Amino acid sequence: MTEGPPIVVEHLVRTFQVKAGLARVEAVKDVSFNLEPGEILGFLGHNGAGKTTTMKCVLGLLHPTSGRARVWGLPPGSAGARARLGYVPENPDYDQSFSSLELLRAFAGMRGLGGTEADWRKLLERVGLRGWETMRLKNYSKGMRQRLSLALALQSKPGLLVLDEPTGGLDPIARKEFRDIILEENARGASIFLSSHLLSEVESVCNRVIILNRGTVVRTGTLEELLGGEETHRVSYLEDRTAREVTVPSDALQNTIDMLRAKGFPVTGVERSWKSLEEVFLSATGARS
Amino acid sequence: MKGVLVFSVMTLRMLFRKRTPWGILIGVLLALFAIAQVPSFSVGNQGRFILDFGLFGIELGALVLALGLAANLFPQDREQRTVMPLVAVPLSRWQYLLGRFLGAAMVQASALLVSCAGLVVILLIRGIRVPGDILPATVLIVSEGWFLLATVFFFSFFTSPPLNWPLTTILFVLSQMSVRDFVGLAPSSPDLMRGLRLLLPHADVFHIKDPLAHGFDVAPQFFALAVFYGLCYTAFMLSLALAVFRGRDLK
Question: Which chain A residues contact residue B94 at CB under 8 A?
Answer without folding.
Answer: none
